[in-house]
Design a protein that fits this description.
heterodimer; A: mainly beta; seven-stranded mixed beta sheet; four-stranded antiparallel beta sheet; 11 strands; 51% strand; B: 111 residues; mainly beta
């Protein structure tokens, strides 16, 4: 079956612009998580969606937002881009929703590499 | 707050050697999972191994095994008979009220 698909794979924006990234999870997976990966900060959790509801949110400013559609596809949006937003944005899906014990195995997409000039 | 620390930014070993990647963590949760994920160069991150905190037996997946020391909050990954394809970034992650990743260890397998 198809894996997690992220589009676009690469994009270049300038400061002040906004960007929307898309993630299609594995068929049947209802949970989608987003992570920002940078050389300095590593992998940082952005948010998690399950059944169209944001279930968890990381420590990012309000410029970062997301949503999930009824078919489990998810988008994240970054407004008023800053140079520091340059990163690889990873989407991951899992079959089940958030659990207290964190048992879910994530399947990651290839990422969307954003460069802000 | 949960933390995951990987103290080895980079390691290099010869092919066929055994290598151990270190990971320590901190959480106030009693029930949690620990993971090692692998991110090969320009490729997708994939799960290597998963360990439930309540299980004392260390998880094993073929050449990959863990040494889970709950009291010490340590979760190291051992790769036996290392292969060139093992070259990748390895991330330790703690699952409890969200997933927290360490900064990663860049493992290089030399021919």
């Amino acid at each position: 079956k198809a894996g997690v698909t992220q589009t676009p794979r690469y994009l270049i924006k300038t400061r002040g612009q906004q960007v929307t990234l898309s993630c299609s999870p594995i068929s049947g997976h209802r949970s989608v998580s987003w992570y920002q990966q940078t050389p300095g900060q590593g992998l940082q959790f952005l948010f998690e969606y399950f059944s169209e509801t944001q279930r968890n949110k990381g420590n990012f400013p309000g410029r970062f937002s997301g949503r999930q559609f009824s078919n489990s596809r998810s988008e994240m949006n970054v407004s008023t881009l800053e140079l520091g937003d340059s990163a690889l944005y990873l989407c991951a899906s899992s079959l089940a929703g958030p659990t207290v014990s964190g048992a879910n195995v994530l399947t990651f997409g290839a990422g969307s590499r954003l460069t802000v000039l | 707050a949960q933390t995951v620390t990987q103290s080895q930014p980079e390691m290099s070993v010869q092919e066929a050697e055994t290598v151990t990647l270190s990971c320590t963590y901190d959480t106030s949760e009693n029930n949690y999972y620990l993971f090692w994920y692998k991110q090969p160069p320009s490729r997708q991150m994939i799960l290597v191994i998963r360990q439930e905190a309540y299980k004392q037996q260390n998880a094993t997946e073929n050449r990959f095994s863990v040494n889970f020391q709950k009291a010490a909050k340590s979760f190291s990954l051992k790769i036996s008979d290392s292969q060139l394809g093992d070259t990748a970034m390895y991330f330790c992650a703690l699952g409890a009220d969200g997933l927290t990743f360490g900064k990663g260890t860049h493992l290089i397998i030399q021919p």
